[in-house]
């Protein structure tokens, strides 16, 4: 910043200010990927900063600060890589379904419960066909089934009014044998479009209620 004539540094700082403003405007729907707006300018500024630091480090008689700086630079990458590698080896390289699930669970605690929901409708004697999940779409993966509608059931709070009506039409035409509604999306549906719950209760009956949500089966 002391190099006031450096237009690139100034523009990168301006970029950061505008990017933070855009992120702040989306505070009601804040997701991690929004911060990708800052990756390019901060990356270049960090590289320029390293160049400045290197000039000071070369003048030092002891190599310890330089070694410490290199260690700090690689610490985030090496710690993540080490954790994943140790977990992978301890689970026999996740070659089987059970060990793969154990490996995934370390990085996402909800995987076992989602896996059990998927297994529930994959048992022998279950009705065949596509399903609809108002909740975590991982259930599709674990159940081995695809989505019965065009509109997804994740982040329903962002649906437009016409999308709610369209969702009911798609459910009516596709007639999925099973519908799963997570408790959190259920509250969203009740607030934004209670007619959908009325539709489900008319056409479906409760099959199972768990800690994750409710499974409905077509009547």
Keywords summarizing the entry:
219 residues; elongated; 9 helices; four-stranded mixed sheet; 4 strands; alpha+beta; 9% strand
Structure description:
This protein has 219 residues and is an alpha+beta fold. The protein folds into two domains: 53 residues; 110 residues. Helices cover 58% and strands 9% of the residues. Strands 1-2-4-3 form a four-stranded mixed beta sheet. Helix 1 crosses helix 2 and helix 8 packs across helix 9. It is elongated, with a radius of gyration of 25 Å.
Entry summary:
With 219 residues, this protein is α+β, with helices and mostly antiparallel strands.
Topology at a glance:
Blueprint: H1 7-25, H2 39-59, H3 64-90, H4 97-107, H5 111-120, E1 132-134, H6 138-143, H7 161-174, E2 178-182, H8 183-192, H9 194-203, E3 204-209, E4 213-218
Parallel strand pairs: 1-2
Antiparallel strand pairs: 2-4, 3-4
Helix pairs in contact: 1-2, 8-9
Strands in their spatial order, largest beta sheet:
1-2-4-3
Structural class, please? Answer: alpha+beta
- How would you sum up the major sheet? 4 strands, mixed
Number of strands: 4
Which percent band covers the strand fraction? 5-15%
Number of helices: 9
What's the SSE pattern?
HHHHHEHHEHHEE
**Count of separate structural domains:** 2
In which range does the helix fraction lie? 55-70%
Rounded to the nearest angstrom, the radius of gyration is 25 Å
The low-confidence parts are none
What gross morphology would you assign? elongated
Distance between the termini: 68 Å
Query: Kindly state the mean pLDDT as a whole number?
Result: 93
């Amino acid at each position: 910043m002391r190099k006031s004539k450096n237009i690139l540094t100034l523009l990168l700082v301006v970029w950061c200010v505008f990017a933070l403003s855009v992120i702040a405007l989306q505070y009601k729907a804040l997701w991690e990927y929004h911060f990708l707006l800052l990756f390019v300018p901060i990356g270049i500024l960090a590289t320029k900063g390293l160049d400045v630091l290197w000039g000071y480090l070369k003048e030092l008689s002891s190599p310890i600060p330089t070694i410490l700086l290199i260690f700090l630079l690689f610490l985030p990458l090496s710690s993540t890589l080490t954790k994943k590698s140790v977990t992978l080896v301890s689970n026999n390289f996740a070659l089987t379904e059970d060990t793969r699930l154990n490996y995934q669970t370390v990085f996402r605690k909800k995987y076992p419960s989602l896996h059990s929901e998927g297994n529930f409708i994959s048992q022998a004697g279950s009705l065949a066909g596509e399903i609809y999940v108002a909740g975590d779409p991982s259930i599709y993966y674990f159940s081995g089934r695809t989505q019965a509608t065009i509109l997804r059931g994740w982040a329903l709070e962002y649906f437009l009014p016409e999308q709610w009506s369209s969702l009911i039409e798609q459910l009516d035409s596709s007639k999925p044998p099973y519908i799963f509604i997570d408790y959190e999306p259920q509250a969203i549906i009740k607030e934004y479009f209670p007619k959908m719950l009325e539709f489900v209760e008319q056409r479906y009956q409760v099959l199972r209620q768990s800690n994750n949500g409710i499974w409905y089966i077509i009547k």
